[in-house]
Design brief:
about 240 residues, alpha+beta, Beta-Lactamase, Arc Repressor Mutant, subunit A, 5-stranded antiparallel beta sheet, 10 helices, 5 strands, about 15% strand, globular
Length: about 240
């Protein structure tokens, strides 16, 4: 199945005509992941580092357990995935591959979590968080489930990027129809803003969204101005 077909299938499953709030879409994505991928938890985590993180949405009995442990202990696969921009897949937290996070692995196992999969939400050269999936038994995601999870992470990231402002504006589903075309411009602009301000990607993204809100223009229009060097954020 092609990625665009997979995205269309998942979008159809998690959106409705009145879906206008990214948090609601995120909750539906997490519930979809739990139900369709035989998970015991799924959480969408937004972060700019271990010291600044929050769960936007979750589903399943272990949705908040694993994320909370990682934030409390300051170690774990979601922090690694966010820092590296590379998925961290741990099908067995009792295996040697989890030894790099001894405190987290022991605490997660004690809480009944035996597998953890953290997918980064990448934006430009950095990221804004992770989609965390976990199971109460060891075992790797199937190829189909992993492919679905990666696309779900992209949808979650785009829902955050394209959060609409104001009553009567377009809904998330409508915005995401064009996300594939516009996202590279927004990613590039976010990276440029981060470099201009010597700040994190998450904070650069926040500045871009605030500028769009203040000017009553779309994020894409502001991003185009940044990429074409008509606008700088360090002036």
């Amino acid at each position: 199945m092609r990625e665009d077909e997979r995205r269309a299938r998942i979008m159809a499953a998690v959106t409705e005509p009145d879906t206008a709030e990214p948090g609601e879409l995120a909750r539906r994505l997490c519930r979809y992941a739990v139900d369709e991928m035989a998970l015991s938890g799924c959480a969408l985590v937004l972060m700019s580092g271990a010291e600044s993180a929050g769960v936007l949405a979750g589903a399943g009995r272990h949705a908040s357990t694993v994320t909370g442990l990682q934030m409390e202990l300051g170690e774990g696969p979601c922090l690694q995935a966010h820092a590296s921009g590379i998925p961290v897949l741990l099908p067995d937290l009792a295996a040697e591959s989890a030894n790099r996070w001894p405190a987290f692995a022991a605490a997660a196992l004690a809480a009944g979590v035996h597998a953890e999969f953290s997918l980064p939400l990448t934006v430009g050269p950095g990221g804004i968080g992770t989609l965390d999936l976990c199971r109460d038994r060891p075992g790797m995601l199937s190829e189909e489930h992993l492919a679905d999870a990666l696309v779900a992470a992209d949808i979650a990231r785009d829902a955050v990027l394209y959060q609409p402002y104001g009553a009567g504006g377009p809904g998330v589903a409508e915005l995401l129809d064009t996300a594939g075309t516009d996202r590279l411009v927004i990613h590039q602009a976010t990276g440029m803003i981060a470099a201009q301000l010597d700040d994190t990607i998450a904070n650069a993204l926040a500045r871009l969204r605030a500028a769009a809100f203040a000017s009553e223009r779309s994020m894409y229009d502001i991003a185009q101005d940044v990429v074409q060097r008509r606008v700088r954020f360090d002036d």
